[in-house]
Write a structure and sequence with these properties.
Bound molecules: ligand G3I
CATH class of one domain: Alpha Beta
Structural class: alpha/beta
Order of helices and strands: HHEHHEHHEHHEHHEHEEHEHEH
Number of helices: 14
Helix content: 40-55%
CATH topology of one domain: TIM Barrel
Strand content: 5-15%
CATH superfamily of one domain: Glycosidases
Strand order of the largest sheet: 1-2-3-4-5-6-8-9
Radius of gyration: 23 Å
Number of strands: 9
């Protein structure tokens, strides 16, 4: 039987309507979540504190699982927590962290195997290269083996560079020498050949430090160690670094054949003492009214500035999405942020996408709007 004209008209109207509906549905889903809006571009992650890992507040858990598809432990996998005493490992909270990621089908990042800060006190007392090599091998082997096939990527070495690009005088450098970095990467890769291995640092947008990181990656490659990516932390301000500096960072690292992640993104809206940048935790300054201008709420004009800054940055990220594996915010909402206590204790900063009441800010809309047209 031949279809009549009116049947054909009805049929095509139904098809058009249903595809239109699908479009509306997928757009409205994307509109309601960062992870859906950026699906296929890069992972959108967040850093979890212990209360979030233990799911103390269901509203927070819902927000995390709805918005993000990758997690990083803000503190609980640092050596002072995982191996507080020699050979006494404590995986209680890190097991819960990994279970959280598995339950919500997330990309699970590990932070961090080798770092001079939040270091187990006994590790900081190591005096010779043999003992340091033994400690590095044992710590990395034990932790990577424990989560083999469960943790998707690791920050193997964190913040090994000074601002001028030279190696930081840490206990690792002082005892083992510069090859502690190669040792760490090779040990991790030997245990889990599939897990992605990252070098992670802040202020890599600054030319000298970036050059130091480029040399660090080249040196690993020359020594035959596997490195999959570099994490530029992204503890940034409204004006600095410039978009050009951020772009140069993406291009310089991807030219080495490694992935780039923005691993700890937040944007401080507060005045910075002496133009301080980055995350050198030992730098502290006194609080006063001038330095804490928005103790109650962030004025609308500043919300707009923050939104514009995030919009500019994400436009750039999208331009280079083929080189970027993950963008992780350093916290879920503003009240969690470490910036409320750094570099001045007791201020109120507004660096993230969700406010104190877990509500999306203009900054959130500015990022979503790049992917979902109204
Ligand atoms: O756990 C104690 C608690 O018992 C005590 O009551 C409280 C009093 O201040 O302090 C708590 O410890 C704090 C810890 O965070 C857990 O909240 C430490 O004082 C505080 O120094 C520590 O700060 C962490 C910081 O790393 C330490 O270097 C921040 O939460 C964490 O966000 C920050 O994360 C680092 C990354 O790992 C590496 N890149 C830079 C980034 C920002 O500094």
């Amino acid at each position: 039987m031949k279809p009549t004209k009116s049947f054909l008209f009805l049929f095509s109207a139904v098809i058009t309507l249903s595809s239109c509906n699908n479009k509306i549905n997928s757009q409205s889903t994307a509109k309601n979540s960062l992870k859906n809006a950026y699906k296929g571009d890069f992972y959108i992650g967040t850093a979890l504190d212990i209360n979030q890992i233990e799911e103390k507040d269901p509203k927070v858990t819902n927000l995390i699982s709805k918005q993000f598809n990758s997690i990083t432990p803000e503190n609980i996998m640092k050596s002072m927590f995982l191996q507080p005493e020699e050979n006494k490992f404590d995986f209680d909270v890190s097991d819960k962290y990994v279970a959280f990621g598995q339950k919500h089908k997330m990309f699970i990042h590990g932070h961090t195997l080798v770092w001079h800060s939040q270091l187990a006190p006994w590790m900081s007392k190591i005096k010779d290269s043999t003992s340091m090599a033994k400690m590095l091998t044992n710590h990395i082997t034990t932790v990577v083996k424990k989560y083999k096939g469960k943790i998707d990527s690791w920050d193997v070495v964190n913040e090994a560079l000074n601002e001028d690009g030279t190696l930081r005088k840490s206990v690792f450098l002082n005892t083992y020498g510069k090859n502690f970095i190669t040792h760490a990467f090779k040990t991790a890769a030997a245990i889990d050949s599939k897990v992605e291995l990252y070098y992670n640092d802040y202020n890599l947008c600054n030319a000298k430090k970036r050059q130091g990181a480029v040399e660090l990656v080249k040196n690993l490659q020359k020594n035959g160690a596997k490195i999959d990516g570099v994490g530029e932390q992204g503890h940034w301000h409204l004006e600095t670094p410039t978009l050009e500096e951020i772009e140069k960072t993406i291009l310089d690292f991807s030219a080495l054949g490694v992935k780039v992640s923005f691993s700890e993104l937040d944007i401080s809206v507060l005045p910075s003492p002496y133009g301080l940048q980055g995350a050198e935790i030992s730098q502290r300054f006194a609080n006063n009214e001038k330095m804490n201008p928005y103790p109650k709420t962030l004025p609308d004009s500043m919300q707009v500035k923050l939104a514009q800054r995030y919009n500019d940055i994400f436009k750039l990220f999208l331009k280079h999405k083929d080189k970027i594996s993950r963008v992780t915010f350093w916290g879920v909402n503003d009240t969690q942020s470490w910036l409320n206590d750094f570099p001045i204790k007791g201020r109120t900063d507004y660096p993230l996408l969700f406010d104190a009441n877990l509500q999306p800010k203009k900054a959130y809309e500015s990022i979503i709007s790049l992917k979902v047209k109204k």
